Amino acid sequence: MAKKQADGDGLNIPNRITALPVRRVGPVVAAVIVVLLAAMLVQGLITNPKLDWPTVWKYLFNENVLEGIGYTLLLTVISMVVAIILSVILAIMRKSINPVLRGVSWFFIWFFRGTPVYTQLVFWGLFAVLIPKISLGVPFTSISFWSIDSDVVITAFNAAWIGLALNEAAYLSEIVRAGLEAVDPGQTEAAKALGMNRTLIMRRIILPQAMRIIIPPTGNETIGMLKTTSLVLAVPFTLELQFATNAIANRIYKPIPLLIVACFWYLLITSILMVVQSRLEKHFGKGFDARAMGTRGKQPPLPGKTDGEPKDDVNKLNEAAFNGLTA
Protein backbone atom coordinates (compact mmCIF):
# COMPACT_ATOMS: atom_id res chain seq x y z
CA MET A 1 0.00 0.00 0.00
CA ALA A 2 2.88 2.34 0.79
CA LYS A 3 4.25 1.84 -2.69
CA LYS A 4 0.87 2.57 -4.28
CA GLN A 5 0.47 5.78 -2.27
CA ALA A 6 3.98 6.82 -3.19
CA ASP A 7 3.14 6.29 -6.84
CA GLY A 8 -0.18 8.11 -6.50
CA ASP A 9 -2.32 5.03 -7.08
CA GLY A 10 -5.49 4.66 -5.04
CA LEU A 11 -5.71 8.41 -4.32
CA ASN A 12 -8.61 10.55 -5.44
CA ILE A 13 -6.75 12.99 -7.69
CA PRO A 14 -9.05 15.23 -9.77
CA ASN A 15 -8.43 15.52 -13.52
CA ARG A 16 -5.91 12.70 -13.43
CA ILE A 17 -4.00 12.31 -16.70
CA THR A 18 -3.65 8.74 -17.89
CA ALA A 19 -0.42 8.60 -19.90
CA LEU A 20 -0.24 6.08 -22.71
CA PRO A 21 3.03 4.63 -24.04
CA VAL A 22 4.27 6.21 -27.27
CA ARG A 23 3.72 3.97 -30.26
CA ARG A 24 6.96 3.60 -32.18
CA VAL A 25 6.09 2.61 -35.72
CA GLY A 26 9.54 3.24 -37.19
CA PRO A 27 11.33 0.18 -35.75
CA VAL A 28 8.48 -2.10 -36.83
CA VAL A 29 8.52 -0.75 -40.39
CA ALA A 30 12.32 -0.99 -40.54
CA ALA A 31 12.22 -4.59 -39.28
CA VAL A 32 9.65 -5.58 -41.90
CA ILE A 33 11.73 -4.01 -44.67
CA VAL A 34 14.91 -5.73 -43.49
CA VAL A 35 13.18 -9.11 -43.27
CA LEU A 36 11.78 -8.72 -46.79
CA LEU A 37 15.16 -7.74 -48.23
CA ALA A 38 16.85 -10.63 -46.41
CA ALA A 39 14.26 -13.08 -47.72
CA MET A 40 14.74 -11.78 -51.28
CA LEU A 41 18.52 -12.11 -50.93
CA VAL A 42 18.33 -15.68 -49.60
CA GLN A 43 15.81 -16.66 -52.28
CA GLY A 44 18.08 -15.24 -54.98
CA LEU A 45 21.14 -17.02 -53.65
CA ILE A 46 19.35 -20.35 -53.48
CA THR A 47 17.52 -20.26 -56.82
CA ASN A 48 20.18 -18.59 -59.02
CA PRO A 49 21.59 -21.38 -61.22
CA LYS A 50 24.71 -19.34 -62.05
CA LEU A 51 26.00 -19.81 -58.49
CA ASP A 52 26.15 -23.59 -59.02
CA TRP A 53 25.94 -24.68 -55.39
CA PRO A 54 26.72 -28.37 -56.11
CA THR A 55 30.14 -27.30 -57.40
CA VAL A 56 30.63 -25.11 -54.33
CA TRP A 57 29.98 -28.06 -51.98
CA LYS A 58 32.19 -30.29 -54.10
CA TYR A 59 35.29 -28.08 -53.80
CA LEU A 60 34.64 -26.53 -50.37
CA PHE A 61 36.89 -29.10 -48.68
CA ASN A 62 39.11 -29.87 -51.65
CA GLU A 63 42.66 -30.82 -50.62
CA ASN A 64 44.19 -28.00 -52.68
CA VAL A 65 41.83 -25.49 -51.09
CA LEU A 66 42.64 -26.74 -47.58
CA GLU A 67 46.36 -26.55 -48.37
CA GLY A 68 45.83 -22.99 -49.58
CA ILE A 69 44.09 -22.12 -46.29
CA GLY A 70 47.08 -23.48 -44.38
CA TYR A 71 49.58 -21.39 -46.36
CA THR A 72 47.35 -18.31 -46.05
CA LEU A 73 47.22 -18.66 -42.27
CA LEU A 74 50.95 -19.34 -42.10
CA LEU A 75 51.76 -16.23 -44.15
CA THR A 76 49.40 -14.16 -42.00
CA VAL A 77 50.84 -15.34 -38.69
CA ILE A 78 54.52 -15.03 -39.67
CA SER A 79 54.04 -11.65 -41.34
CA MET A 80 52.10 -10.19 -38.41
CA VAL A 81 54.51 -11.49 -35.75
CA VAL A 82 57.52 -10.03 -37.58
CA ALA A 83 55.62 -6.82 -38.33
CA ILE A 84 54.58 -6.34 -34.69
CA ILE A 85 58.16 -6.80 -33.47
CA LEU A 86 59.49 -4.38 -36.08
CA SER A 87 56.71 -1.86 -35.43
CA VAL A 88 57.49 -1.69 -31.70
CA ILE A 89 61.18 -1.15 -32.51
CA LEU A 90 60.36 1.54 -35.09
CA ALA A 91 57.93 3.31 -32.74
CA ILE A 92 60.53 3.38 -29.97
CA MET A 93 63.11 4.68 -32.46
CA ARG A 94 60.71 7.48 -33.46
CA LYS A 95 60.54 8.56 -29.81
CA SER A 96 64.28 8.18 -29.24
CA ILE A 97 66.49 11.13 -28.30
CA ASN A 98 69.01 9.91 -30.92
CA PRO A 99 68.39 11.83 -34.19
CA VAL A 100 69.98 9.02 -36.27
CA LEU A 101 67.49 6.47 -34.95
CA ARG A 102 64.61 8.88 -35.54
CA GLY A 103 65.79 9.48 -39.10
CA VAL A 104 66.13 5.77 -39.90
CA SER A 105 62.66 5.08 -38.51
CA TRP A 106 61.14 7.98 -40.44
CA PHE A 107 62.76 6.84 -43.73
CA PHE A 108 61.58 3.24 -43.29
CA ILE A 109 58.00 4.35 -42.63
CA TRP A 110 58.09 6.89 -45.47
CA PHE A 111 59.36 4.37 -48.02
CA PHE A 112 57.15 1.37 -47.21
CA ARG A 113 54.00 3.45 -46.72
CA GLY A 114 54.67 5.39 -49.91
CA THR A 115 54.90 2.42 -52.30
CA PRO A 116 52.18 -0.14 -53.08
CA VAL A 117 52.50 -3.53 -51.42
CA TYR A 118 52.08 -5.23 -54.83
CA THR A 119 55.09 -3.33 -56.18
CA GLN A 120 57.15 -4.28 -53.13
CA LEU A 121 56.25 -7.94 -53.55
CA VAL A 122 57.34 -7.81 -57.21
CA PHE A 123 60.73 -6.45 -56.14
CA TRP A 124 61.12 -9.16 -53.51
CA GLY A 125 60.30 -11.75 -56.18
CA LEU A 126 63.12 -10.29 -58.29
CA PHE A 127 65.57 -10.14 -55.37
CA ALA A 128 67.68 -13.01 -56.75
CA VAL A 129 67.92 -11.19 -60.08
CA LEU A 130 68.93 -7.89 -58.49
CA ILE A 131 71.34 -9.45 -55.96
CA PRO A 132 72.49 -12.90 -57.17
CA LYS A 133 74.67 -13.57 -54.10
CA ILE A 134 74.48 -12.63 -50.44
CA SER A 135 78.00 -12.32 -49.02
CA LEU A 136 79.95 -11.05 -46.03
CA GLY A 137 83.34 -9.46 -46.48
CA VAL A 138 85.25 -6.19 -46.59
CA PRO A 139 83.01 -3.37 -47.90
CA PHE A 140 83.90 -1.77 -51.27
CA THR A 141 86.31 -4.60 -52.10
CA SER A 142 86.09 -8.03 -53.70
CA ILE A 143 87.23 -9.74 -50.48
CA SER A 144 84.49 -12.11 -49.27
CA PHE A 145 84.51 -14.39 -46.24
CA TRP A 146 81.15 -16.07 -46.84
CA SER A 147 78.59 -16.08 -49.65
CA ILE A 148 75.44 -17.91 -50.68
CA ASP A 149 73.12 -17.78 -53.67
CA SER A 150 70.19 -15.46 -53.05
CA ASP A 151 67.61 -17.86 -54.50
CA VAL A 152 68.54 -20.37 -51.77
CA VAL A 153 67.69 -17.93 -48.98
CA ILE A 154 64.98 -15.77 -50.57
CA THR A 155 62.61 -18.47 -51.75
CA ALA A 156 59.12 -17.60 -52.97
CA PHE A 157 57.62 -18.25 -49.54
CA ASN A 158 60.30 -16.23 -47.73
CA ALA A 159 59.98 -13.38 -50.21
CA ALA A 160 56.22 -13.35 -49.68
CA TRP A 161 56.25 -13.04 -45.87
CA ILE A 162 59.22 -10.66 -45.83
CA GLY A 163 57.48 -8.31 -48.26
CA LEU A 164 54.21 -8.46 -46.33
CA ALA A 165 55.91 -8.02 -42.94
CA LEU A 166 58.01 -5.01 -43.92
CA ASN A 167 55.06 -3.23 -45.49
CA GLU A 168 52.81 -3.95 -42.49
CA ALA A 169 55.47 -2.85 -40.00
CA ALA A 170 55.42 0.66 -41.47
CA TYR A 171 51.69 0.99 -40.77
CA LEU A 172 51.73 -0.74 -37.38
CA SER A 173 54.57 1.46 -36.16
CA GLU A 174 52.32 4.52 -36.39
CA ILE A 175 49.60 2.66 -34.47
CA VAL A 176 52.10 1.70 -31.76
CA ARG A 177 53.46 5.26 -31.62
CA ALA A 178 49.93 6.63 -31.15
CA GLY A 179 49.35 4.15 -28.33
CA LEU A 180 52.61 5.08 -26.62
CA GLU A 181 51.88 8.79 -26.83
CA ALA A 182 48.41 8.25 -25.36
CA VAL A 183 49.88 7.13 -22.03
CA ASP A 184 50.02 9.92 -19.47
CA PRO A 185 53.58 11.34 -19.23
CA GLY A 186 53.13 11.34 -15.48
CA GLN A 187 53.47 7.55 -15.58
CA THR A 188 57.01 7.90 -16.94
CA GLU A 189 57.91 10.57 -14.43
CA ALA A 190 56.66 8.44 -11.56
CA ALA A 191 58.64 5.43 -12.82
CA LYS A 192 61.80 7.54 -13.12
CA ALA A 193 61.26 8.72 -9.56
CA LEU A 194 61.33 5.06 -8.50
CA GLY A 195 64.71 4.61 -10.22
CA MET A 196 63.53 2.61 -13.25
CA ASN A 197 65.55 2.91 -16.47
CA ARG A 198 64.01 3.75 -19.88
CA THR A 199 63.91 0.14 -21.09
CA LEU A 200 62.16 -1.10 -17.96
CA ILE A 201 59.72 1.82 -18.04
CA MET A 202 58.79 1.04 -21.63
CA ARG A 203 58.40 -2.70 -20.98
CA ARG A 204 56.61 -2.62 -17.61
CA ILE A 205 54.76 0.71 -17.53
CA ILE A 206 54.13 2.21 -20.98
CA LEU A 207 53.49 -0.78 -23.26
CA PRO A 208 50.96 -2.57 -21.00
CA GLN A 209 48.85 0.60 -20.81
CA ALA A 210 49.24 1.39 -24.50
CA MET A 211 47.96 -2.06 -25.50
CA ARG A 212 44.38 -0.94 -24.80
CA ILE A 213 44.69 1.53 -27.68
CA ILE A 214 46.95 -0.58 -29.90
CA ILE A 215 44.88 -3.79 -29.94
CA PRO A 216 41.76 -2.63 -31.92
CA PRO A 217 43.59 -1.21 -34.98
CA THR A 218 46.10 -4.07 -34.85
CA GLY A 219 43.19 -6.51 -35.06
CA ASN A 220 41.95 -4.66 -38.14
CA GLU A 221 45.42 -4.82 -39.67
CA THR A 222 45.58 -8.58 -39.00
CA ILE A 223 42.29 -9.10 -40.80
CA GLY A 224 43.59 -6.93 -43.62
CA MET A 225 46.78 -8.98 -43.75
CA LEU A 226 44.73 -12.16 -44.14
CA LYS A 227 43.22 -10.75 -47.32
CA THR A 228 46.45 -9.08 -48.51
CA THR A 229 48.04 -12.53 -48.77
CA SER A 230 46.08 -12.92 -52.01
CA LEU A 231 48.62 -10.49 -53.58
CA VAL A 232 51.62 -12.79 -53.09
CA LEU A 233 51.00 -13.99 -56.64
CA ALA A 234 53.28 -11.05 -57.53
CA VAL A 235 56.31 -12.84 -55.99
CA PRO A 236 55.13 -15.33 -57.38
CA PHE A 237 53.92 -17.61 -54.57
CA THR A 238 51.17 -19.91 -55.82
CA LEU A 239 50.05 -22.00 -52.86
CA GLU A 240 47.77 -19.61 -50.92
CA LEU A 241 43.98 -19.80 -50.89
CA GLN A 242 43.09 -17.32 -53.62
CA PHE A 243 45.47 -18.81 -56.16
CA ALA A 244 44.35 -22.36 -55.26
CA THR A 245 40.70 -21.54 -55.96
CA ASN A 246 41.60 -19.62 -59.13
CA ALA A 247 43.60 -22.59 -60.40
CA ILE A 248 40.61 -24.92 -59.93
CA ALA A 249 38.28 -22.38 -61.56
CA ASN A 250 40.53 -22.07 -64.61
CA ARG A 251 40.67 -25.83 -64.92
CA ILE A 252 36.89 -26.45 -64.77
CA TYR A 253 35.86 -23.10 -66.34
CA LYS A 254 33.61 -22.20 -63.39
CA PRO A 255 34.99 -19.08 -61.66
CA ILE A 256 31.87 -18.06 -59.69
CA PRO A 257 31.50 -21.23 -57.54
CA LEU A 258 35.19 -21.15 -56.66
CA LEU A 259 34.97 -17.47 -55.74
CA ILE A 260 32.18 -18.41 -53.33
CA VAL A 261 34.45 -21.10 -51.85
CA ALA A 262 37.21 -18.52 -51.28
CA CYS A 263 34.73 -16.02 -49.79
CA PHE A 264 33.38 -18.64 -47.40
CA TRP A 265 36.79 -19.49 -45.98
CA TYR A 266 37.91 -15.85 -45.76
CA LEU A 267 34.69 -14.96 -43.91
CA LEU A 268 35.06 -17.90 -41.52
CA ILE A 269 38.67 -17.07 -40.64
CA THR A 270 37.85 -13.36 -40.32
CA SER A 271 34.99 -14.15 -37.92
CA ILE A 272 37.33 -16.17 -35.70
CA LEU A 273 39.89 -13.36 -35.72
CA MET A 274 37.19 -10.86 -34.72
CA VAL A 275 36.27 -13.01 -31.71
CA VAL A 276 39.94 -13.22 -30.69
CA GLN A 277 40.28 -9.45 -31.10
CA SER A 278 37.24 -8.88 -28.89
CA ARG A 279 38.69 -11.09 -26.14
CA LEU A 280 42.02 -9.27 -26.29
CA GLU A 281 40.30 -5.90 -26.06
CA LYS A 282 38.44 -7.00 -22.93
CA HIS A 283 41.65 -8.35 -21.39
CA PHE A 284 43.72 -5.21 -21.94
CA GLY A 285 40.75 -2.94 -21.21
CA LYS A 286 40.39 -4.06 -17.61
CA GLY A 287 40.00 -1.08 -15.32
CA PHE A 288 38.88 1.21 -18.15
CA ASP A 289 35.27 0.05 -18.44
CA ALA A 290 32.65 2.81 -18.33
CA ARG A 291 30.73 3.00 -15.07
CA ALA A 292 27.31 4.52 -14.49
CA MET A 293 27.30 7.77 -12.55
CA GLY A 294 24.79 9.35 -10.21
CA THR A 295 22.23 7.80 -7.92
CA ARG A 296 21.96 4.62 -10.00
CA GLY A 297 25.68 4.07 -10.32
CA LYS A 298 27.38 0.98 -8.98
CA GLN A 299 28.48 2.56 -5.72
CA PRO A 300 28.79 1.06 -2.26
CA PRO A 301 26.00 2.19 0.09
CA LEU A 302 26.68 5.15 2.33
CA PRO A 303 26.75 4.64 6.12
CA GLY A 304 23.25 3.88 7.36
CA LYS A 305 22.08 2.73 3.89
CA THR A 306 21.39 -0.77 2.65
CA ASP A 307 21.85 -2.24 -0.81
CA GLY A 308 18.13 -1.92 -1.54
CA GLU A 309 17.97 1.84 -0.84
CA PRO A 310 18.94 4.59 -3.30
CA LYS A 311 22.53 5.76 -3.05
CA ASP A 312 23.00 9.50 -2.73
CA ASP A 313 24.80 11.30 -5.55
CA VAL A 314 28.21 12.51 -4.37
CA ASN A 315 27.94 15.65 -6.50
CA LYS A 316 24.57 16.52 -4.95
CA LEU A 317 25.97 15.94 -1.46
CA ASN A 318 28.88 18.26 -2.18
CA GLU A 319 26.54 20.87 -3.60
CA ALA A 320 24.26 20.68 -0.53
CA ALA A 321 27.22 20.97 1.82
CA PHE A 322 28.52 23.97 -0.09
CA ASN A 323 25.15 25.71 0.01
CA GLY A 324 24.86 24.99 3.73
CA LEU A 325 28.25 26.58 4.41
CA THR A 326 27.44 29.70 2.43
CA ALA A 327 23.96 30.13 3.93
From TrEMBL:
Kindly state which keywords UniProt assigns to this record, in alphabetical order: Amino-acid transport, Cell membrane, Membrane, Transmembrane, Transmembrane helix, Transport
List GO terms (cellular component aspect).
ATP-binding cassette (ABC) transporter complex
Q: Where is this region: Disordered?
A: 291-315
Where in this chain does the entry annotate a coiled-coil region? none
Membrane-crossing residues?
25-48, 68-92, 104-131, 143-166, 255-276
Q: What is the lineage of its organism?
A: Bacteria, Bacillati, Actinomycetota, Actinomycetes, Bifidobacteriales
Tell me the superkingdom of the source: Bacteria
Query: Is Iron set as a keyword in this record?
Result: no
GO BP annotations of the record are:
amino acid transport
Q: Where is the ABC transmembrane type-1 domain?
A: 69-277
Q: How is this protein named in the record? A: ABC transporter permease
The family this protein is said to belong to: Belongs to the binding-protein-dependent transport system permease family.
